[in-house]
């Protein structure tokens, strides 16, 4: 447990503050609506979970590789550094999940969850935030390992997120795009694709993390080579 | 400006430009962005070269292209610049720089202009590259003139605004957190409809350049039926949305530049207090 | 832990050869590694610590082959490593930092871990500062934390790269003594620019130059390389043009130069007894 506590500290303030700030901003945006309409407000509230939490988690995971001041000591320890990085990613995602889960519970209890017609229920519906959070987290983790620069990896995660926001329609024109679309609950083009989309995001995330762990096995890349 | 200050500014600008220009990610991130954009269909990028789909006027085509390029690539621009000022501390060069007689304000300005310009090079290359291809493809050389004008009154002020905040805000919060908040702001402050929630979109503080687009470039969306600036019935913050005129367009540009200068001054003060 | 290195080559991207067909055996005890900047010392240290993979060649540590994952892990379980550029987590206290690294080294027993950390903090004279954040530590204090973390798991192999950099003279002497006492039946590989550190602690030494081994033997043998080549020159004129000036001291209106040169560098030069530094210079100046 102590080791997990240390890894939580290493994940950094951004990983800790990002999800609650993101949810707070999303919820504030929902209730700042000057022309209240239950469906629109509910959509923004679920959007805070489906959009804001994954963005925070994704940027948090993108910042895990390439900024460790004690990387040489880490690499010389018998605990593989990639396992350490995986722990930090797990902590980042677990914290985001806790914030999102609590928010979802409040939305369910207050009835806002049910006011969005495409809510997929209180249980399977948790994939609303879980799938894009894990998906974007994996993209961030992989980009961090490839670039070894939180700035570049963060830029890639935010750009991917923004492209799917700005160009929701073209992004979902074809099936592969629909399956990898992050915001299928609140901006999904084909409701029937939702389950497939959520599973595809989780599967892609698992594949990306596996590939990233293979890449991180080459410890030499991690020493003093952060792109400054 | 004294000779020493000018020399500091020039040296800082030149070397910050070089260091940032050599960063692979400054090139990879915009390249991947354009690749992703093309992969999902590319909307206007694709339509520009389709005689059946492209806008009738060269002006609408290249100004519309600027809006899409600016909206999309500025995200990576802000994220890539977010570590440039705090980097000096991380690399332990800050004490060496602080021990020189160079004025910190001039160094900051040089870093701002140098790193900002270097990070903008790929964005401008993408924009002018596509605009030139369009001009050749359609036989409309005047499209390049519109591209230059759009760059001057929309893209450059917007990037100067973004760069100032991207450099200085990470002095008071972790850079990754800034990236999250910046993206949220970019969406909220540029794209969200004002009648949906209080937003800075379509106000004088609009880095996507609603006022210059409307009043200086007479651009109202690709299809000509969008409103990019001015009051919105029922919206809050309409006090910041005067009617779009050339005067308010220049005022909007000035507001962005003043806010950028204020952000830099704030950053300078924070660093001075910590020194 | 005996280290056996044969035909070790490391070529970095861009074709830079840091190590070029190195053959070396390091026995148990203190062993010094000398060489100029860029000689390949840090690359060798990193390969031995399992951080960097060689381009070719074979390395075994205590019989474990470093080219295999299992071999690397086995070596790392008995390894203490102090890198040249020690990075720490500034938000942790010295005690927390050591606790974290102890966990990564597999020291799961909380009581034993705490006891060991307490002992080491005492050894490096940081008990009074143990609960202060590392952010406020001076360079020398951080280096002492680095030394403590290297000794955490009572390693059989201790690799220390420029360990006395940033330490004051008293700390330096204390650390040298600590290393020598620690060595015993263990292997301590000491890489340094400070020839005196090797002279005071090591019986055997190797010298690297441009990735190759140019000397391996005892400290006395390396010193002997300068016999008949060390000169004292007193002059009020410019320093001797021939040879390498080791030191320059003011002397009765002029200067006294200590020079390493194959032949007398000036008519008034007189031969003097060599030290290890002279031997090193005589070897590398060739």
From TrEMBL, chain B:
<feature type="transmembrane region" description="Helical">
    <location>
        <begin position="247"/>
        <end position="270"/>
    </location>
</feature>
<feature type="transmembrane region" description="Helical">
    <location>
        <begin position="65"/>
        <end position="82"/>
    </location>
</feature>
<keyword id="KW-0472">Membrane</keyword>
<protein>
    <submittedName>
        <fullName>Uncharacterized protein</fullName>
    </submittedName>
</protein>
<keyword id="KW-1133">Transmembrane helix</keyword>
<feature type="transmembrane region" description="Helical">
    <location>
        <begin position="112"/>
        <end position="137"/>
    </location>
</feature>
<feature type="transmembrane region" description="Helical">
    <location>
        <begin position="26"/>
        <end position="45"/>
    </location>
</feature>
<feature type="transmembrane region" description="Helical">
    <location>
        <begin position="171"/>
        <end position="188"/>
    </location>
</feature>
<feature type="transmembrane region" description="Helical">
    <location>
        <begin position="143"/>
        <end position="164"/>
    </location>
</feature>
<keyword id="KW-0812">Transmembrane</keyword>
UniProtKB/TrEMBL annotation, chain C:
<dbReference type="InterPro" id="IPR027417">
    <property type="entry name" value="P-loop_NTPase"/>
</dbReference>
<dbReference type="Pfam" id="PF00005">
    <property type="entry name" value="ABC_tran"/>
</dbReference>
<dbReference type="InterPro" id="IPR003593">
    <property type="entry name" value="AAA+_ATPase"/>
</dbReference>
<comment type="similarity">
    <text>Belongs to the ABC transporter superfamily.</text>
</comment>
<dbReference type="GO" id="GO:0005524">
    <property type="term" value="F:ATP binding"/>
</dbReference>
<keyword id="KW-0067">ATP-binding</keyword>
<feature type="domain" description="ABC transporter">
    <location>
        <begin position="3"/>
        <end position="235"/>
    </location>
</feature>
<keyword id="KW-0813">Transport</keyword>
<keyword id="KW-0547">Nucleotide-binding</keyword>
<dbReference type="GO" id="GO:0016887">
    <property type="term" value="F:ATP hydrolysis activity"/>
</dbReference>
<protein>
    <submittedName>
        <fullName>ABC transporter ATP-binding protein</fullName>
    </submittedName>
</protein>
<dbReference type="InterPro" id="IPR017871">
    <property type="entry name" value="ABC_transporter-like_CS"/>
</dbReference>
<dbReference type="InterPro" id="IPR003439">
    <property type="entry name" value="ABC_transporter-like_ATP-bd"/>
</dbReference>
């Amino acid at each position: 447990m102590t080791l997990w506590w240390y890894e939580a500290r290493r994940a950094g303030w951004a990983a800790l503050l990002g999800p609650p700030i993101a949810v707070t901003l999303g919820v504030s945006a929902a209730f700042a609506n000057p022309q209240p309409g239950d469906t629109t407000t509910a959509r923004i509230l679920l959007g805070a979970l489906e959009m804001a939490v994954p963005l925070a988690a994704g940027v948090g995971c993108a910042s895990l590789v390439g900024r460790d001041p004690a990387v040489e000591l880490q690499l010389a320890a018998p605990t593989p550094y990639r396992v350490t990085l995986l722990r930090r990613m797990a902590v980042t995602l677990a914290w985001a999940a806790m914030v999102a889960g609590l928010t979802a519970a409040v939305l369910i209890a207050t009835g806002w969850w049910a006011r969005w017609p495409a809510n997929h229920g209180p249980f399977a519906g948790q994939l609303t935030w879980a799938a894009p959070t894990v998906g974007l987290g994996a993209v961030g983790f992989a980009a961090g390992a490839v670039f070894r620069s939180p700035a570049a990896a963060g830029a890639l995660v935010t750009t991917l997120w923004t492209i799917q926001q700005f160009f929701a329609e073209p992004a979902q024109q074809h099936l592969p795009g629909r399956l990898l679309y992050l915001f299928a609950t609140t901006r999904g083009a084909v409701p029937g694709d939702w389950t497939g989309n959520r599973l595809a995001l989780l599967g892609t995330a698992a594949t990306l993390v596996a590939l990233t762990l293979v890449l991180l096995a080459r410890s030499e890349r991690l020493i003093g080579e952060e792109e400054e | 400006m004294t000779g020493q200050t000018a020399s500091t500014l020039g040296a800082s600008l030149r070397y910050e430009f070089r260091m940032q220009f050599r960063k692979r990610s400054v090139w990879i991130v915009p390249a991947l962005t354009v690749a992703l954009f093309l992969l999902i269909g590319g909307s206007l990028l694709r339509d520009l070269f389709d005689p059946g789909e492209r806008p009738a006027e060269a002006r609408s085509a290249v100004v519309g292209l600027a809006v899409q390029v600016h909206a999309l690539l500025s995200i990576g621009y802000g994220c890539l610049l977010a570590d440039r000022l705090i980097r000096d501390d991380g690399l332990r060069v800050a004490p060496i720089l602080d021990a020189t007689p160079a004025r910190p304000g001039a160094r900051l300005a040089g870093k701002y202009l140098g790193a900002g310009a270097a990070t903008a090079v790929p964005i401008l290359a993408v924009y002018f590259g596509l605009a030139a291809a369009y001009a050749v493809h359609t036989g409309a050389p005047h499209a390049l003139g519109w591209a230059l004008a759009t760059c001057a009154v929309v893209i450059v002020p917007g990037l100067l605004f973004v760069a100032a905040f991207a450099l200085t805000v990470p002095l008071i919060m972790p850079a990754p957190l800034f990236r999250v908040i910046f993206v949220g702001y970019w969406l909220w402050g540029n794209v969200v409809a004002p009648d949906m929630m209080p937003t800075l979109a379509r106000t004088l503080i609009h880095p996507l350049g609603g006022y210059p687009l409307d009043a200086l470039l007479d651009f109202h969306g690709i299809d000509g039926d969008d409103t990019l600036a001015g009051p919105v019935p029922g919206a809050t913050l309409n006090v910041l949305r005067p009617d779009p005129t050339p005067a308010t367009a220049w005022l909007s540009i000035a507001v962005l530049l003043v806010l950028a200068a204020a952000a830099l001054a704030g950053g300078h003060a924070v660093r001075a207090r910590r020194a | 832990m005996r280290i056996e290195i044969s035909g070790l080559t490391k070529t970095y991207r861009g074709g830079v050869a840091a190590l070029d067909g190195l053959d070396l055996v390091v026995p148990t005890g203190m062993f010094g590694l000398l060489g100029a900047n860029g000689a390949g010392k840090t690359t060798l240290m990193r390969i031995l610590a399992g951080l960097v993979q060689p381009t070719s060649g074979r390395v075994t540590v205590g019989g474990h082959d470093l080219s295999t994952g299992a071999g690397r892990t086995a070596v790392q379980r008995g390894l203490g490593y102090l890198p040249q550029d020690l990075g720490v987590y500034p938000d942790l206290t010295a005690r927390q930092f050591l606790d974290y690294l102890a966990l990564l080294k597999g020291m799961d027993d909380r009581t034993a871990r705490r006891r060991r950390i307490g002992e080491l903090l005492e050894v490096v004279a940081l008990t009074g500062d143990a609960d202060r954040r590392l952010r406020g530590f001076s360079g020398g204090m951080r280096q002492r934390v680095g030394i403590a973390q290297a000794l955490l798991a009572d390693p059989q192999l201790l690799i220390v790269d420029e360990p006395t950099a940033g330490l004051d003279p008293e700390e330096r002497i204390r650390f040298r003594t600590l290393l020598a006492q620690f060595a015993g039946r263990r292997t301590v590989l000491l890489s340094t620019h400070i020839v005196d550190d090797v002279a005071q602690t090591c019986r055997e030494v190797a010298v690297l130059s441009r990735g190759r081994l140019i000397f391996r033997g005892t400290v006395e043998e390396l010193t002997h390389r300068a016999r008949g080549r060390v000169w004292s020159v007193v002059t009020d004129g410019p320093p001797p043009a021939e040879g390498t000036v080791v030191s320059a001291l003011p002397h009765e209106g002029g200067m006294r130069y200590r020079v390493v040169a194959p032949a007398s560098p000036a008519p008034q030069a007189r031969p003097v007894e060599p030290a290890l530094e002279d031997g090193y210079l005589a070897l590398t100046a060739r």
